[in-house]
Amino acid sequence: MHDITGGPGQTAVQLIRGTVPPHPSSSSDTVDIDDHLTEGPAIDSKPVGRPQGTYMLGSLHQPVFVISITFVLTDGPYNGSTIVVAGRENIFETVRELAVVGGTGQLRRAAGHVLWRTAKLESAVHMVLELDVHASVPANAAARGHWSVANATEQSNGNTSADSD
């Protein structure tokens, strides 16, 4: 994952700067990202997705960010699916852990965790993160049918018939 906070190819933009003095670990309080997700650590590696979301300063005393990212997968067997990751990141830890809190498409109802580490600092504004995703998806979660509110109500009233799209 390539997080580029300035210069050519910028993928992260400051949205909000707080009223307190800047935290020593970051020049921004809230950042919007539309990063590059590549198969390997090089920026010209095969693109496989776009991490899109935000990270924001989560502590006044520690280098901690609160992160919410949807990984939009654009290649491979999960093309068109997403996986949603959220959590707390202390940037001074070598390996950081975030929660997999959901997904869409073939990754619907995904759960698990992501371990990530800073693989390389290409420059002062380009950080490469290595992600190790551990997630599972219930066997029937990616099925095309779904339950409507009406069906759920019928089920709770003892009616066992159901419609599926």
Description:
It is found in: Secreted, Extracellular space, Apoplast. Helix content is 5%, strand content 48%. It has 165 residues and is mainly beta. It has one domain (2-136): AOC barrel-like (Beta Barrel). Strands 1, 2, 3, 4, 5, 6, 7, 8, 9 and 10 form a 10-stranded antiparallel sheet that branches. Strand 4 and strand 5 (47-57) form a beta hairpin. The protein starts with a strand and ends in a 9-residue tail after the last helix.
Major sheet size, sense and barrel closure? 10 strands, antiparallel
Count of runs of 4 or more consecutive helical residues: 1
Shape field: globular
Q: Give the terminus-to-terminus CA distance.
A: 36 Å
CATH architecture descriptor:
Beta Barrel
Keywords: Apoplast, Secreted
Organism: Arundo donax (Giant reed)
Subcellular location: Secreted, Extracellular space, Apoplast
Subunit structure: Homodimer.
Index terms:
AOC barrel-like; disordered C terminus; ten-stranded antiparallel beta sheet; 165 residues; 10 strands; globular
